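User: Can you help me understand a structure? I only have the sequence.
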Amino acid sequence: MLQLSRKLLCIILCLSIGACAPKGRYYQHQDSAPKIVPEYVTTKDAIPRYEPYAPANLRPYNVRGVNYQPLLSGLGYTDTGQASWYGQKFHGHKTSNGEIYDMYQMSAAHKTLPLPSYARITNLDNGKQVVVRVNDRGPFHFNRIVDLSYAAALKLDILKTGVGNVKLDVIHVSPEGKITIGKQTPIKNLNHQKQSRYIQVVALKNKQSIEHLAKKISAQYQLPYRILYTGSIYKLQLGPLGEHINLPKILEKLKRKEFPSAYPIDVN
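Assistant: Let's start by predicting it. Here is the structure, written out as tokens:
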């Protein structure tokens, strides 16, 4: 009888714990900082390098009824606003880029920057700076422009306040290794072109082959593309290309490699 009572008590305790445990993907209901900060917390900035954008993360998406359209390139991107941070609740879970979030590394989340990207974050209240690798989506609050990892927030000294006033400058690295920080060309020059510029790369009959080729070339040159179907032919075109894109240089590379018939196109 005593053994039976003990078993019943264990079952009741297990059910009670299960009922109180958080449900869903994350163990914690509320995010938090680690109670004990390990010695290996990263204090070094992320090192920018060329990485092709993940095509899957260039697709539009919807969160809480709001549509978001990721940028095709982070070149020249600069923004100011509030930064928040995320920590223990998300630690060890997948980011939007498919990687594992490590709150002790210099990383960040952004709503529309192509993934992965690199950015320099400046705390406008104290002048401190950090370079992060953007590999996640968020924060989904109208007044916040970036969500920092615990390590990045620690270096910028915004852990206690929870948010901070920051400036974000994308650090863009070209396939050739050229680094551009922040704005290079005025926004108005990019958005008010009389014509849209494209490069006709190749024409094929096989749809799967040209789609595979399109993704490969788009990732290699970090440029958008479109596929036009005319009759029985699929045409692959890189573009539209902004005025900051060196079209002759890209065309020369395409011709020198495996697309000698490539040519420029202007579309009104």
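Now, to help you interpret it: The chain has a mean pLDDT of 79. The chain is about 20% helix and 30% strand. Let me know which part you'd like to focus on.
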